[in-house]
Amino acid sequence: MKKMGATTTPLFKDHYSISIISLTKRLLPWTFFALFSIAFVHLYFYPFLPFTTTPSPKTDDFSHSSYPFLHASLPSSSPSPLSSEKEKVYEEKSCDYSNGKWVRDKRGPLYNDTNCGMMKEGRNCKTHGRPDSEYLYWRWKPSECNLPTFDPNIFLQLVRNKHIAFVGDSLARNQLESLLCMISTISTPKVVHQNGDGQGKFGQWHFASHNSTISLYWSPFLVQCVEKSSTRPNNLLYLERVDEKWDRHMDQLDTIVLSIGHWFLLPAIYYENGSILGCHYCPGLNHTEIGFYDVLRKALRTTFNSIIERKLRGKGKNGIIDVVVTTFSPHHFEGDWDKAGACPKTMPYEKGEKKLEGMDAEMRKIEIEEVEIANNKAKSEFNEFGRLIRLEALDVTELALLRPDGHPGPYMNPFPFASGVQEHVQNDCVHWCLPGPIDTWNEILMQIMRKWKK
Predict the structure, then answer these.
(1) 3-class DSSP assignment, residue 103
(2) pLDDT value at residue 192
(3) DSSP secondary structure string for all residues of 213-242
(4) Among 321, 328, 311, 443, which residue's Cα sits nearest to residue 393?
(5) pLDDT tens figures, 27-79
(6) CB–CB of 439/110 below 8 Å?
(7) Which of 11, 55, 200, 230 has its Cα between 20 and 30 A from that of 185?
(8) Are 326 and 392 in contact (CB under 8 A)?
C-alpha cells in the first residue's frame, strides 16, 4: 500500500501542477487586460473618482462634448444626477413664463386665417390684406425653462366635464377666440349661443367629445357698470357689487379667466356704498379726480372676495374653482389712438430694448398684488376645510410689450389701402391678430392648468 501510495501521490501532484500552470497561462493575458483597463479608466476619469481623503465633486454630464481631463476641478455644489432630475421637475413646475424673449420659429401657428370661423373679423389680419407674414413666425422662449406648444388634445383632457369662462373686456374675447381656433384644429365646437351685439356680450361653445363648455361674458370692469352713451360720456361704476351678468352664473363655473384694464382709462364716475367716491377725467362735474389705479384695485378685490364668500357659503359646484387673471396687455399706438395713431412696426423688440414702465408696469403690479392678497385670504379662510379656490396671475404684460408687430393696425378693416394711401386710417394697436402673439397667452394658460391637475 505504501508503495502504491508512493507511486500515485507524485503523479497526482504533477497532474495538479500542470493544471494550475495551464489555467494561469490562459488567465494571465485577461488579467493584464483587466488591470490595464482599470488603470486607464482611473486615469481618464480621475477628477470624478471618489477618494477617502477628499471627496471629489459629482457630475451627470458625460456627453461627447465633455472632456474631463481639461478640468482640474469642478464646483463642489455640482448636483448628482438624481438631484438634477428633481431640480428640473421643480423648475418646470415653478417656471417664470413672464421672463424671456421672442425667438424665430419657422413652424408658424397651429391655424390660419381660413380654417377658423370663430374669430372677430377685425382680428383676421391676413384676410383683410396684411401683406407681411413675419409676425407669425415668432415663439416666446422663457429664460429658465421651455414653454411647450399648445396641444389641443391635452387641453380638452384638462377641461373634460368642465365649464371655463372668459370674463372681462375685448382682450378677454381676443384670448377666447385664439383658444377656440387652436382647439378647433382637432375638434369643432357647437355654438350654443353667440351674441354679436356690440362687443359680443355673451357667447358659449360646447365640445361634445369631452363634455366641455367655454363661455364668454362681456364685463369690462368686472363690477357693476352702466356704460357710457351718446348722452352721457362717462361710465358709471359701482365698486362694491360684482357685475350680475356673470355673477349669476358663477356657481356653474369651474375655471374663470379674467382680463381687464383698458376700459379703466376711459372717463368714469365711481360709486361706493351709495355715495360718489370720485371720478376719472370728468371736467365740468363737481367730483374729485381720483384716477383709476385704486379703482382697478377695488374692482379686483370685490371680485375675488365675492368668489371666496360664495365658496364659504357652500354655494355652487363642489370642489375647487380656479381663477386666472391675465395681466394688462400694453397697446403700441405711436401717437394718440384717436388722432391717427398707428403701430407700423413689423418686428418684435429685442429683450431689453423696451422697458416695462409707467402705466403698463403699474397696472400689472396691481393685478399681481391683488392675486397674491386673494390667495392669502383664501388659504386663511379655507384652512379648516381644505383648499377650495386656486388663483394665479397669467403674467403676459412684458411679453406683450415686446410685440408691437402683432396688432391688426390698419388691417382691422378689409384692404384699407385698396384705393391708395389715405390721409387718416383707423388703426387697432390694442387687440392682436389671429393667429398671432396672443396664442402664447393660451399656451401659458395650459401650463397653469397642467400644474393644477398634477
Answers:
(1) strand
(2) 92
(3) EEEEEE-TTSEEEE---SS--SEEEEEEEE
(4) 328
(5) 445 444 444 444 443 333 333 333 333 333 333 332 333 222 222 222 333 33
(6) yes
(7) 200
(8) no
The whole-number pLDDT of residue 195 equals 72
Taking the C-alpha atoms of residue 264 and residue 266, their distance in angstroms, rounded to an integer, is 5
CA distance readout (Å), 299 to 144, 182, 260, 305, 434: 33, 31, 10, 10, 29
Q: Report the pLDDT value the prediction gives residue 436, as an integer from 0 to 100.
A: 98
Cis? peptide before 435, omega within 30° of 0: yes
Distances (CA, A) of 227 to 198, 230, 257: 12, 10, 22
| Ordered DSSP codes for 154-180 | HHHHHTTT-EEEEEESHHHHHHHHHHH
Asked whether 203 and 119 are in contact (CB, 8 A), the reply is no
Which of 50-54, 201-205, 321-325 is the most confident on average?
Answer: 321-325
Residues 9-22 as b/e (b if ≥16 CB within 10 A, e otherwise) read eeeeeeeeeeeeee
User: Nine-digit cell at 433?
Assistant: 391678430
Catalytic residue among 332, 405, 431, 439: 431
428 is a catalytic site residue: yes
Integer distance in angstroms from the first to the last C-alpha of the chain? 85
Cell numbers at 123, concatenated: 382680428
β-pairing, 163-168 vs 212-218, is parallel
What percentage of the chain exceeds 70 in pLDDT? 76
Which is nearest to 173 in space by CA: 326, 62, 304, 308? 326
Instruction: Beginning with the edge strand found earlier in the chain, give each strand of the sheet holding 275-280 in spatial order.
Output: 223-226, 235-242, 268-272, 275-280
Q: What angle do CA 122, 438, 119 make, to 5 degrees?
A: 35
Mean pLDDT of 295-316: 90
Question: Which of 98, 170, 178, 212 does the annotation list as catalytic?
Answer: 170
163 neighbors 253 (Cβ within 8 angstroms) = yes
